[in-house]
């Protein structure tokens, strides 16, 4: 009986490619980093929380764990502690990537860390001002600083890809208020940032897009609902619309598909979602389904219909 052979490394679609996932400690960033690794990429993963130091969010996930998962998936994970509000540290990171790899093919701006900085159902004038402004710095300034430092390396060779991770599509956010004024502005700004970068990158043969996951089963969200990835459906007893949720691997596979697409420039400047891209590229979530949250949310959840993901995953 012939033993099955492992997939040769050189046949992986992103073998030889270098990616930076800024904000890869947990959630979507971790999922993206791991799936880029599964496609064969070398992935620099950054964040503030390490095994010896936690960020203001005080979560247990670390960048070292993310890097190890990237390597186990088949890539090469490199963890670098970086506060992306500090330009000098971001410049040092990019200089290191240039020194060690001589190239940067994919930049994913996923820095966020603002969940603890807003209060639901409170108007602007009742929100803590310092917290709101801090959220904007974490959500927008970090992305600008990182792109400013990293794009000169990314455009050195044609074909580079920038992915701005946000919450909500441009179409949905244009007509729906998102949580609070500060949060709403943060997510809208990232959508526009992707569009603006696409305009400036096109002459250099590079592409920028905005990408949103759906209802993400991040570590924090699973914890809030008292479930794990293994039994997440139990949470639908209390929150029926959680049936449309998706794992972080799903948006990760969306980024990996974009990065491997030789015609990725067709998406330049657009607002994309994981569910939308799954239909185009054929990838699935970890359970084999293709949840399409940004079609489900307006058509079912916002419409006040009973939770039913039939036809949406």
Give your account of this protein's structure.
By secondary structure, the chain is of the alpha/beta class. It contains ten helices and seven strands. β1, α1 and β2 form a beta-alpha-beta unit. α1 (27-38) packs parallel to α2 (63-73) and α1 (27-38) packs across α8.
Total domains: 1
Q: Note poorly predicted spans.
A: 1-7
Principal-axis shape: globular
What spatial order of strands do you see in the largest sheet?
3-2-1-4-5-6-7
Distance between termini?
38 Å
Number of helices: 10
Mean pLDDT over the full residue set: 94
Gyration radius (Cα, Å) is: 19 Å
Helix content: 40-55%
Instruction: Describe the largest sheet.
Output: 7 strands, parallel
CATH class: Alpha Beta
User: Can you say what the CATH homologous superfamily is?
Assistant: NAD(P)-binding Rossmann-like Domain
Beta content: 5-15%
Assign the structural class, choosing from mainly alpha, mainly beta, alpha/beta, alpha+beta, or little secondary structure. alpha/beta
Summarize this, please?
It contains ten helices and seven strands.
Write the layout of secondary structure elements.
Elements: E1 18-22, H1 27-38, E2 42-47, H2 63-73, E3 76-81, H3 87-101, E4 106-109, H4 129-154, E5 161-165, H5 170-173, H6 181-201, E6 207-212, H7 219-225, H8 248-260, E7 271-273, H9 274-281, H10 293-301
Parallel strand pairs: 1-2, 1-4, 2-3, 4-5, 5-6, 6-7
Helix pairs in contact: 1-2, 1-8, 3-4, 4-6, 8-9
């Amino acid at each position: 009986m012939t033993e099955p052979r492992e997939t040769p490394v050189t046949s992986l679609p992103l073998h030889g490619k270098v990616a930076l996932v800024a904000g890869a400690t947990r959630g979507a960033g971790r999922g993206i980093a791991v799936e880029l690794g599964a496609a064969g990429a070398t992935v620099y993963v950054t964040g503030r929380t390490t095994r010896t130091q936690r960020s203001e969010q005080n979560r247990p996930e670390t960048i070292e764990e993310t890097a190890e998962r990237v390597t186990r998936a088949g890539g090469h994970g490199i963890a670098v502690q970086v506060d992306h509000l500090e330009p000098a540290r971001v410049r040092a990171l990019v200089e290191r990537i240039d020194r060690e790899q001589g190239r940067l093919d994919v930049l994913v701006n996923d820095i966020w860390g603002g969940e603890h900085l807003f209060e639901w159902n409170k108007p602007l004038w009742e929100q803590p001002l310092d917290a709101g402004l801090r959220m904007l710095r974490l959500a927008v300034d970090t992305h600008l600083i990182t792109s400013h430092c990293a794009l000169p390396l990314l455009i050195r060779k044609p074909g580079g890809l920038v992915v701005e991770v946000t919450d909500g599509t441009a179409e949905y956010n244009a007509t729906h208020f998102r949580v609070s004024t500060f949060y709403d502005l943060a997510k809208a700004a990232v959508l526009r940032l992707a569009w603006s970068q696409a305009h400036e990158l096109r002459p250099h043969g590079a592409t920028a897009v905005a990408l949103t996951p759906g209802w993400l089963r991040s570590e924090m969200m699973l914890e809030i609902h008292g479930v794990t990835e293994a039994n997440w459906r139990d949470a639908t007893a209390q929150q029926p619309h959680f049936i449309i949720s998706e794992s972080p691997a799903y948006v990760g596979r969306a980024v990996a598909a974009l990065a491997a697409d030789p015609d990725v420039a067709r998406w330049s400047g657009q607002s994309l979602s994981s569910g939308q891209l799954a239909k185009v590229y054929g990838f699935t979530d970890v359970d084999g389904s293709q949840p399409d949250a940004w079609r489900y949310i307006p058509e079912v959840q916002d419409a006040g219909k009973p939770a039913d993901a039939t036809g949406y995953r």
